[in-house]
Amino acid sequence: MQISSVNDVKIYNLSHGKSLPEWLSDRKKRQLQKKDVDIQRRIELIQDFEMPTVCTSIKVSRDGQFILAAGTYKPRIRCYDTYQLSLKFERCLDSDVVAFDILSDDYSKLVFLHSNRYVEFHSQHGHYYKTRIPKFGRDFSYHYSSCDLYFVGSSSEVFRLNLEQGRFLNSLQTDAVENNVCDINPVHHLFATGTSEGRVECWDPRVRNRVGMLDCALSSLTEGTEYVPSLPSISALKFNGSLSMAVGTSTGQVLLYDLRSSQPLLVKDHFYNLPIKSLNFHDQLDLVVSADSKIIKIWNKDTGKVFSSIQPQTNINDICIYPNSGMLFTANEDPKMNTFYIPALGPAPRWCSFLDNLTEELEESPESTVYDDYKFVTRKDLENLGLSHLVGSSLLRAYMHGYFMDIRLYHKVKTMANPFAYEEYRKDKIRQKIEESRTQRVQVKKLPKVNKELALKLMEEGDDEAELASRKKKGKALPSILGDDRFKVMFENPEYQVDEQSEEFRLLNPIVSKVGQKRKKKLRLLAQQALCEISVQAAEDEEEPEGRASSEEDSSDDDKSWVEEVREQRRLLWQEGRDRRKHDRKEADRNTVLQPQFYQIKAGEEFRSFNDMARKQRLQKASLEDRLKLEEHCGTSNMADTAVGSKQLTFTLKKVNCSHEAPSSASAMKYKYKTQNTVN
């Protein structure tokens, strides 16, 4: 059970808590009830009060003994007996239920309007009869005096089905393109239908003539209405007594009408721009209960003052108030159907009268929440306390970025980890008392221990703004960050110290400094203008003095200057990074331990040097392209051509002594010409 309070009105959510699966055995359920605190504290008012997937509508029989709910999937109807607090029966249907109604005092006569245009009748034993209407239906109402069913839907006609004669009667022709909802007044049996054009048409069933029309779309637009996404259509309709009527629109407004007037008495806006799903009246306290898919609002029908509100966790499809009580049921986009009990609306129903005693005991002895017995700690707190080894055990329960642990264990470990905590706490309290007493003395500007430069900058800017505000007649200085309690940790906690050597700070600092300079310049200009206005009433379009550049030129120069500073900082960062990498490589080379390398000399080879052996190994591993480039670099070039007699030419370049005169190219080279003829 969950307890909430809105406008000092206690609301008890009796359906809050975990629900046990049906396939669990009784033994497993008992074990879970012993271990899980949420299951222990839940109240299962009616057994299996839920749907497989979604509940679309819910109603209570006139005798108050049965609760019927329609849902999916698969489409079905469930009947709950309040005297037995359990499910009485369940019937599966062929298609989804758009709307249903209880024609008798109990569950013996039911009518269902399906999404495939079928109208299905059920008796006490089950399915009785099925027929079809010409158009897709959206809502219907039953006229008890004539035994007529009025169906409205995607048509301008209102279809009438007489249950006494068992045949369709002449339909009512409306001026609308489509009709969304309908209702019949319980006193004088006036039939009203809400159209998609935002009108309400009223018909007299006795003469089958229209007796009035209300334009609710225009009346819903009040002075406080700021935005209307589309033309409001009628989404809900409900009569109260002989003269009152409530109309809900698709844009989230509820209009209260007196049938003797064409103007609404009151317009209540939900401010969600969502269609009104359901409307109900609470006659004992003169309240209206209106609901859209997000919220249920309970408000006074005379003044419109909000009495209370309920906002479930899932979207709402329908609501139903149990007669003469403070209990209401909701059909949600969720398997569980919610049950709310509001003692301020009325007593609990007779079949659950124990709720009154339960709520009175809860009000007399307020119970602490579950989290009062636990302490939330992060992983860093666990390391400080020396409890990191408890991660994964039953003593810590993981939650978000930390863990919940027993508060008694936390206090015990805290005392052992820091036995002088009380002395430190006492000293802090004494220091706080002394600082509070010093506030009465003359205050001297003192820089904080953390972020001194930022604090000094903010103090200078605050002084400039205060001076400017004092020169104006009605000016007020803006509050400083230093005096705001929300930012005081920034100047007290060392973890918030600004690192001026970081890359982010060095790149943003030129921009911030230029903005600060522009701000100071603007403050000086404003101060000069204020002085000029006090001394002389100068014209607003006064020309600039000669020899002074315009503000646009100054701003362009400032823009260029901060761009150059950002580039300079980027260059310095790149250079520092390069130097740091070089230093790291030198350190790595210095720390590297040289290992001896051994080479194997093959048979028939002459050892020259270690470099020669290493060069040969490199040549063996190198590719053909690399070896050719290496031979060209050494001055040797081999050319072979098998197409012309398999001839081979070898050129060897000789070095020339630079001290002598350079010989000709013919004498500087020595040609070796080898010719070899191949005989096939």
TrEMBL record:
Q: Which GO terms describe its biological process?
A: maturation of SSU-rRNA from tricistronic rRNA transcript (SSU-rRNA, 5.8S rRNA, LSU-rRNA)
Q: Which residues form the Nucleolar protein 10-like second domain?
A: 370-418
Query: What's one GO-annotated cellular component?
Result: small-subunit processome
Chain ranges of the NUC153 domain: 484-510
Query: Per the record, which residues fall in region Disordered?
Result: 537-563
| A Pfam family | Beta-prop_NOL10_N
**Annotated compartments:** Nucleus, Nucleolus
- Alphabetized UniProt keyword annotations: Coiled coil, Nucleus, Repeat, WD repeat
Q: Keyword Coiled coil: yes or no?
A: yes
According to the entry, every stretch annotated as the Nucleolar protein 10-like N-terminal domain falls at 1-365
Coiled-coil residues are none
UniProt cross-references to SMART domains, sorted A to Z: WD40
Q: Which family does it belong to?
A: Belongs to the WD repeat NOL10/ENP2 family.
* PANTHER family (UniProt xref): NUCLEOLAR PROTEIN 10
The name of this protein is Nucleolar protein 10
Q: Give the source species.
A: Dicentrarchus labrax (European seabass)
